[in-house]
């Protein structure tokens, strides 16, 4: 199973100063609030998780940040066999932070015209696989891959750049590229830094969560530089094998099917009884019967820390749940381009929920319980302490912005100016510092005996 630290479950007293929240960013913040926890505790006082998480953020030999999850300092032994315990595997080499691949796609002009037509029609329910003449990275050439669109032009009014998913198992079920079935190239118009997913996912991995890996990539289409993209690992069976000791469970993505979830593995079995039982949960005890609630709490908390406007914490659709046969359902984050400066640095980690949200019933059940609300505060503290070091995050932004600078400048399909790109990188750099100040202040209030005196969900002091 995925090893997630239980340290956040015990109170973490972070002797923080009393800083002021930073100024807002240039983008509008949106959202509504919920009320504070008032329900009687229904969960047990003692957590079930005893696994440990990762250490502090990784650094290179010279002290520079690497963007990789920190390495473990030894192999824990199985309590039953004495053999080394199973550990999640590192990110695939294609997503190494010091790697900036150039991906060359060759496609027949008629197939490219069909792709462009699909982009213009903007029907996400009718995206076709198109054969590639070749897929090339460095000295590796694959001649039987396929490509399809991700998203469409209606998602962003000024978007000129198509987004791609390349599959290696469409025509050969055993087809792989560096062990991967798929590679994804993302370029949301409002992700002008090209770095939101990359930084947010690094934070999630640093706190010990199963989260996709990401870096950046150049895409060359039919011999011409097409653009700079975020290169993101797909959540699929290969991802499950990398992150979970037992990868045979059901994987669901929110937003489809009669259950509100789209089944992504074991599709030959039409039953969705497990996720229907999860949907039916009304109490903490109901959740704990089918869900690894400690893991889910840390995932929600880390999204709140970043913050992520469109994931599980914010009431969005960008999330997966995996029914780990060893622990029950866990939450897997997805599509982290709606993060950081999409919200204000003083966005409340508990009360915020996006406008036109899709609900977050599991979060609401857990945080309405006073015992689990306290654990949620401690999970916030753990995520801040483990994954939100300002110097580390700013160091990553500086290194990665320098890495992609030439490609960002040369991108012929970039739907914003180079100044807008550079401004957003600068805004993100300022944002992480301002966000940390606010989070320290928020934690200081709740952990110093603060209460929600006016029942608006916000800490009013002791």
From TrEMBL:
It comes from the Bacteria. The keyword Kinase applies. InterPro entries: Spore_coat_CotH_CotH2/3/7 (IPR014867). Keywords: Kinase, Transferase. Residues 21-59, 66-85 have a biased composition (Low complexity). Residues 14-93, 253-272 are annotated as: Disordered. The keyword Transferase applies. Coiled coil: none annotated. GO terms for molecular function: kinase activity. PANTHER family: INNER SPORE COAT PROTEIN H. This is CotH kinase family protein. It comes from Nannocystis pusilla.
